[in-house]
Amino acid sequence: MGIRLKLIxxxxxxxxxxxxxxxxxxxxxxxGLLDRYLxxxxxxxxxxxxxxxxxxxxxxxxxASEMIADNSYLxxxxxxxxxxxxxxxxxxxxxxxxxxxNAVSAHFVSAETQNYYTQDGIERVIKRGQDDWxxxxxxxxxxxxxSLDVDxxxxxxxxxxxxxxENQGQPVAVTGIGLGLDxxxxxxxxxxxxxxxxxxxxxxDGHINIHPDLDKTGQTLxxxxxxxxxxxxxxxxxYTVSEFSRDGTDYLAASLPLSMTDWRxxxxxxxxxxxxxxxRANTISLVVGLLVALLFLGIVALVATRMxxxxxxxxxxxxxxxxxxxxxxxxxxxxxxDELGELATGFNGFVRSxxxxxxxxxxxxxxxQRFVEQISDVMASNTTRxxxxxxxxxSVATAVYEMETTVQEIAQNATETAxxxxxxxxxxxxxxxxxxxxxxxxxxxxxxxxxxxxxIQQLAREVEDIGRVIDVINxxxxxxxxxxxxxxxxxxxxxxxxxxxxxxxxxxRSLAQKTHSSTEEIRTIIERLxxxxxxxxxxxxxxxxxxxxxxxATRSMGESxxxxxxxxxxxxxxxxxxxxxxxxxxxxxxxxSRNVQNxxxxxxxxxxxxxxxxxxxxxxxxxxxDLARQMKAFRLDK
Length: 638
Fold this sequence. Notes:
Elements: H1 3-70, H2 72-79, H3 87-101, E1 105-110, E2 115-118, E3 121-125, H4 132-140, E4 144-150, E5 157-167, E6 170-180, H5 181-190, E7 198-202, E8 208-210, H6 221-224, H7 227-235, E9 240-246, E10 249-257, E11 264-270, H8 271-274, H9 276-322, H10 339-440, H11 445-494, H12 499-545, H13 547-633
Antiparallel strand pairs: 1-2, 1-6, 2-3, 4-5, 5-6, 7-8, 7-11, 9-10, 10-11
Helix pairs in contact: 1-9, 9-10, 10-11, 10-13, 11-12, 12-13
């Protein structure tokens, strides 16, 4: 339920409740006032007015009856003994009275003769037991009386208005007028109370004398109403009112005694008709109250609509902001200075601050996106380089392992070379001994020369072998130097991780250079040794031709052999140095191999870390792209 509907329902309910309460109070008060007015004022006035009208209707025949009783001619005529020859004027007089009153009969009854005179003359002679009304009236001493009886002639019920005629204080006759009850009922029927209310006349003994419904004439009042109501209506000397129910309908009955007789006029009306005007007034009040309530409810709805229109605009703006578009250009028109206007102003300020904040966030997201893209590119490049570094490190590790194997072979070859050189030294010593003996024994020089030639040739071959070994050592030294150079380059690429390896590579390169220098010196010595061997061979060949030349050559060869011995000693020393350097190089190579292996493992872990970091950076870039996309979803400019 919206605020507008809540306001309308709440205020409308309060308005309707208050309206209904006021209407109910008004109805209750009006009913009380109406009861007092109707029962104490209006109804008595109406009943009295009807009673006066009835009395006026009865006054004329009553006056006519009194006029008959006061007629001096008639009195004199009765006093004269009712001479029948003078009855004509009496009949004409009674006929005139009957005509003027539109009565059934105008009559008088002589107290002396009991003759019943009408406009037609003597109608009958009354008798006790049949006409007790006459004797009762004379005995009562009343001057006038109204009674119901059946006309002996017509057999119709009649209302008789009787007046005592006196002459010198003595009753001489009873005069009166006879009115048909249908005539009186018609007159009574003309008196209406409200719409269907009726009026009827009740005698002092509780019998209904005149009723609009002739069938109820003669019935008791209690049978028409209720005993309690009849008692209440007849108990008071003045105006009385009572309520009763008949056939499921509530009635109000009011009675008022007539001044000219002991009869009472009774007015009977349905209570709904008495209160019809009040009910109409209440209905009108209710309808007017409802119309007023609806009018004010419409005003409330209009006010609530005007009050909630800014709230609806705020709701619509927030809905637009909350949608996928995120429209932050929504602003409300401030057309009032009340709380709703302040709310609209606050909302506009909030939207502007959010727009500025979102714009800043969007710029930050875009910068973050660019930074993440740069970091992603760097991380991708670093990942590629880390992979290359790992691959190169593995290559270096393989090369170092191969170099370690080669250095071990070099060490073995250097040791073998030293052993061979020692053998060469031993051979050179034996040659020197042989040459000394050859000098002393020239005779066996030819054989010795041949042996020497063979030994020298063997020496030449071994020197060539030494040269080949030196070539191998030199090649290994060059390869070691190349590997050390490559290792230094890779160490430089590895950065901090390759600093230790770079130092080791420098040491390996230094040792390789020393090895290369030593092998060059050995090569020089070997070349000189080869040259000396060649000269020895030539000398041996020349010694076969001439002994003296042989002796000289032998001496020269001895000297050469001395040089060879010294060279061999130096070669042996150098070979031991090469072997020691090679062993040291092997140890260094093992360290290099371990370090390279560690570097390889570090490179592998670094590569894995770089790969993981690259994945994280990719995820960060995806989040940055998502953030930028979400920020771009907000509409910041109209």
